[in-house]
Amino acid sequence: MSAAPAAGAAPTSKATTSNKTTDAAKDTQPAAVLEEDDEFEDFPVENWSQEETEVPGGNAHLWEESWDDDDTSEDFSAQLKEELKKVEAGRKR
Amino acid sequence: MAIIEEFLASIHAFIKTKDALKLQDWLRVEPPLPEHYYKLGAELKAKYKDGNVLERYIEKLLPENANAKADEGDVWPGFLAFMKAYLEFWRDVDFEDLLRTHTQLSELVNSCITALSNATYGIVVLPTVIQLSAALAKLAMTLDKRPDLTRNRRAVVDQGGEGRKTLVEGTAESIQRAFTMCLTERTSNRNGIGKDGKPEGKKVGIYSFANLVLKLLFQCRKTRLANQLFTNISQNSPPLSLYPASQRVTYLYYLGRFQFANGHFYHAQICLQSSYDQCHAQCISQRRMILIYLIASNLILGRFPSPALMSRPEAQGIVDKFFPVAKAIKKGDFVAFKRSLGPESGNEEWFFQKGVLLPMLYRCEVLVWRSLARRVFLLTYQAPGDVNSRKAPTLDFTDFAAAAQYCQMMLEMSGKSTPFNNRQHVNTMFMKPTEQSIPERRKLSAASGVICGNHTPDVKEVEAIVASLVQQGLLHGFISHNQGKFAILGAKQRGGAVNAGFPGVWDVLKTKAAREGKNTQIPGWVLRERQVGGMGGVVNLSGIARPVGSGS
């Protein structure tokens, strides 16, 4: 399988169809309300090596797994605290 | 020498030398193309209007070679029919009329797939089928975005009378025929791997076609039809790792999205992470698409993007949409959570378009409940003065209900200053006076409330939620219904009441997935060579040849 002809042809067909889009847009609503990246684009090359996938920093620390927030001084906690005080007061009554 | 004669002579030479790549390079349809192709079209229009005359001419210039040597290729009837279809395509095509071009190209692709089916020689047209199918898929995708062009299209009604199919779905079905042919080809090595360690014969084309079919099925939002494709791949494909990187990454992206759409977030996360890891570093657009679903899956599983991920170029413009969701989950802040996914965020439509809104709304909510319970516990629990106390740390349901009620009230109060925000009927005739008499409270849709709409959560309901969290392993302890409390187990052994009662979400879900074997076997992803033999060579092919539109 050769990627060359397919890769070469990819941008060109867009050129042909986009001309048509412009024509049609004149008399109808523009159909291209879709986002620019709604489609998973074809890759410009067929194959690549492991080295070519590597990005600075690597993929080892992409996710936070321990994220529990113990800070009870922020707004939401302060407001909750007020509510809970009312419950506490109700219990004592 | 006429162009057509020269063209067929070259094709004949490629067939004889089995030069599949040259054939692919010559049998092109996608503009722009060298002037030669248009001249070929003009010549065909002038001389070969009659299909029968053209057919005889092709047979004359592409004769069967009765004395072909073993290593030589030869023409076969399917190929002659395809060549006729190809020349007729160039004779009749009008690239200005995209819809008609789609019909003509569909016929050409079908004819080429039939040529591919020849067991001896068919493989020489495999790269050509891939190229033509890719052009057809691209055209179908273009047409799908142009309803003005397809408005008058006659619906393609299949013979089974299953109803109308969209142009995109019909195209997917055509290409799936080539996919099935490659997947089910009988190869000399039963596992489909040749001596060179590569996929054998037509099996080399499996993922090229699968990816085109998947692209089309996702485009027409008929992803459930992909089910059969994934099942068949699981049963018949050589390992995915034997295929080129572009095919692996694309396939895992679609498989991950399929798993996501079906609520298998752990599997989705594994597929998408692998797709992301294997993606070319400079293909930012593809990395970005993968990342959208990868972040959504991870959020649901209790993993949030790290600062390192957030600084990546492909994350720009995405992470800031997900960030408020993660922040709200961390705090257990229902109001912020609903806002982060609601119209106020400005991202609701975007999340919806990507197909991640509802899964996040319903699945992440579980994590918000857990964090809220944790927060209420942090605010209310007082450790006993006696270190040796055997009393279990508890969370009182009255407190938890009060917190939930507070969140509900805040949701109903928010945005009350703009009267059109409350989703009352625009026609005042239908507005009841009672609704007007309590203007402070906003009418909430079912998904916008803490439990459901304007329903105020009570102790009984929060107890049910705690029970559900315990059952999911997200809270560790037991419920005392009589006392109206949740009691934490193992506070001393597990480093304190908070750590013991509220284990990390990701740790819990990962351990659970590992226990269920979810990290070693993923439907649709062939990781290892198939074990063959021992069953007397019986291969069950039932269901494989089913067309894409026939349902599963």
UniProtKB/TrEMBL annotation, chain A:
Cross-referenced Pfam families: DSS1_SEM1 (PF05160)
Listed name of the protein: 26S proteasome complex subunit SEM1
Domain of life: Eukaryota
Keyword Nucleus: yes
Entry keywords, A to Z: Nucleus, Proteasome
Similarity comment: family membership: Belongs to the DSS1/SEM1 family.
Species of the source: Coleophoma crateriformis
UniProt-annotated stretches for the region Disordered: 1-75
GO cellular component term, pick one: proteasome regulatory particle, lid subcomplex
Residue spans of biased composition, Acidic residues class: 34-54, 65-74
Subcellular location as annotated: Nucleus
Biased composition (Low complexity): 1-18
Coarse class of the protein's main subcellular location: nucleus
Role description: Component of the 26S proteasome, a multiprotein complex involved in the ATP-dependent degradation of ubiquitinated proteins.
GO biological process: double-strand break repair via homologous recombination; mRNA export from nucleus; proteasome assembly
InterPro entries recorded: DSS1_SEM1 (IPR007834)
UniProtKB/TrEMBL annotation, chain B:
A GO term, aspect molecular function: RNA binding
Domain of life: Eukaryota
Coiled coil feature spans: none
Gene3D superfamilies: Winged helix-like DNA-binding domain superfamily/Winged helix DNA-binding domain
InterPro entries in alphabetical order: Csn12-like, WH-like_DNA-bd_sf
PANTHER family: NUCLEAR MRNA EXPORT PROTEIN THP1 (PTHR12732:SF8), UNCHARACTERIZED PROTEASOME COMPONENT REGION PCI-CONTAINING (PTHR12732)
Annotated protein name in UniProt: PCI domain-containing protein
